[in-house]
Amino acid sequence: MQYQDLIDACQQEWHTYTEHDFVQQLATGTLDKQSFLHYLKQDFLFLKHYVRAYALAIYKANSLEDMRQALPTVHALLNSEIAHHVAWCEQWGISEQDMEQEPEDFGTVAYTRFVLDAGMSGDLVSLYSALAPCSIGYAAIGRQLAHQSTTVWEGNPYQTWLKLYSSDDFQTHVAHGAAHFNKLLADIDLNSQKGQQLIDTFRTATRMEIAFWQQGLNQSGAQL
Ligand SMILES: Cc1ncc(CO)c(N)n1
């Protein structure tokens, strides 16, 4: 099987995730600022656990090749993606230390611990099945927003977010990881018990992504 089989197996959830209102409002710049801020603070906390999950991928790897695959992602998360979130929040007077102290919302706890458990109780390919909706999904969203005519760049307060996820750097990085994931999946039959387990993990993570957007959107109208 290939990662596209996982997407095909949960088309409906994938569509709801990648076309979510949160994403569309972000692209037009109409998203409530409090929604975005809540999302970004929670995503900062999410990404900390996400780094832990990629570190776990090194631990779970059997070959040097698999170990080397995970390392650049650990680096990119710490120095590029998390750095973006910190820089964006700084314009609002929120420091990295403030972000570290932010309480984790329920959706953040659920999603991050689900991913870590998939890795701890399972093997490397199970872990990557829980991680794949994050990387492959955001790359798909970034690409889509960069090409759709309704996306507003000029004066959009979320322009740096749009640039980050549509950037060649992010796109190439994810494509590289996805090709490696495909290699791990190649020996697994879609209809085997393992194949069905991976679909289950991928679907749950995709549902968690939908809940993560919704968690941000639910803050609309809250006081700054
Ligand atoms: C919730 C979530 N999923 C995926 C990504 C992409 O890394 C992110 N930053 N946050």
Helicity, as a percent range:
over 70%
The radius of gyration is 17 Å
Question: In CATH, what is the class?
Answer: Mainly Alpha
Proportion of strand residues: under 5%
What fold name goes in the CATH topology slot?
Heme Oxygenase, Chain A
Low-confidence stretches: none
Helix-strand topology string? HHHHHHHHHHH
Number of helices: 11
> Span from first to last CA?
47 Å
- Round the mean pLDDT to the nearest integer and report it: 96
Number of domains: 1
Largest sheet: none
Q: CATH homologous superfamily - what is it?
A: Heme oxygenase-like
Instruction: Report the CATH architecture.
Output: Up-down Bundle
User: What compounds are bound to the protein?
Assistant: 4-amino-5-hydroxymethyl-2-methylpyrimidine
Shape, principal axes of CA atoms: globular
Describe what this molecule looks like in 3D:
78% of the residues lie in helices and 0% in strands. With 224 residues, the protein is mainly alpha-helical. The radius of gyration is 17 Å and the shape is globular. The mean pLDDT is 96. The site of 4-amino-5-hydroxymethyl-2-methylpyrimidine has 9 residues, from helix 4, helix 8 and helix 11. This is Aminopyrimidine aminohydrolase. One of its GO terms (cellular component) is cytosol. Catalyzes an amino-pyrimidine hydrolysis reaction at the C5' of the pyrimidine moiety of thiamine compounds, a reaction that is part of a thiamine salvage pathway. Pathway: Cofactor biosynthesis; thiamine diphosphate biosynthesis.
